[in-house]
Design a protein that fits this description.
267 residues, alpha/beta, 6-stranded parallel beta sheet, two-stranded antiparallel ribbon, 8 strands
């Protein structure tokens, strides 16, 4: 079998909220965040906010506890485990940050299910302060994509992933945001796109679905995410098994036909 690669966005796909907003709001820094928002790119703002939190005495333990309370639909965890159990490779492509994502996944017991996490670096420095840096260093050069924020083009990430896997491997991509639209344009007609209904990626795709090559399967909540994802995986495996059975049957029939031909009479 060619295999299946399932790529998940994180914010509002695996979890129900934006992890950046969740941490800022839960720790009581929403007003400052909104005040600074017009002055710098989002990714740079989050790094600045982590510095503000540190200077106000917020500890990494405080941030950990907030992340462990993050809301997630109860059917998302079984969906991830089922896809993995069915033999799919799972990866994350997210504009959140590595510290937030890994903290949540470890808490949910899901970290080992993912073979790769593509996101903005996030680490605790020697002073005990969380630092967040861009996936793509836009201060040095532009990634050249007008659809995506300066710090990360998910379409470029998908192209790198496509170059690293076999051409027969199928990709199922799940996402919700503006940044998830660009990857949908990179997928092929043998892939699947699962945009969250009534969210920005779904709205952008709906404006001109002919621009998108993969099959589109929308979902609304974690329950539907699980159902649609497993249905697609089953459909792919059924299709591949049918093709293999057809090939085997074709070979058998041809071998039988050859055997049934009149044999040469020995002289």
């Amino acid at each position: 079998m060619a295999g299946i690669l399932v790529v998940f966005d994180f914010d509002k796909t695996i979890i129900e909220v934006d992890s950046d907003n969740w941490v800022i709001d839960e720790l009581g820094f929403t007003d400052l965040f909104n005040q600074l928002l017009p002055t710098m790119p989002w990714n740079s703002l989050m790094d600045s906010m982590m510095n503000e939190l540190y200077s106000e005495g917020v500890t990494m333990e405080d941030i950990d506890e907030v992340l462990k309370r993050i809301p997630i639909h109860p059917r998302v965890i079984p969906a991830i485990k089922s896809a993995h159990a069915l033999g799919c490779e799972l990866r994350i492509v997210s504009d959140a940050n590595l510290f937030f994502i890994e903290t949540v996944l470890k808490h949910l017991g899901l970290k080992d299910y993912f073979s790769e996490i593509n996101t903005n670096p996030g680490f605790v420095d020697e002073e005990g302060r969380l630092r967040i840096s861009p996936y793509h260093d836009f201060t040095q050069s532009s990634h050249g994509c007008s659809l995506c924020p300066p710090n990360m083009c998910k379409g470029h990430v998908i192209e790198r992933i496509q170059a690293s896997i076999s051409k027969e491997q199928r990709i199922i991509y799940l996402g919700d945001g503006v940044g998830d639209y660009c990857p949908s344009l990179k997928l092929t007609d043998t892939d699947y796109m699962m945009p969250r209904k009534d969210f920005p990626a779904w709205e952008l795709i709906s404006r001109n679905p002919m621009l998108v090559k993969p099959e589109i399967h929308e979902w609304t909540d974690g329950e539907e995410l699980e159902r649609v994802l497993i249905e697609i995986i089953d459909e792919i495996y059924l299709e591949e098994n049918s093709a293999q059975l057809f090939s085997a049957d074709y070979i058998f029939q041809n071998v039988s036909s050859i055997a049934a031909l009149p044999q040469a009479v020995p002289l």
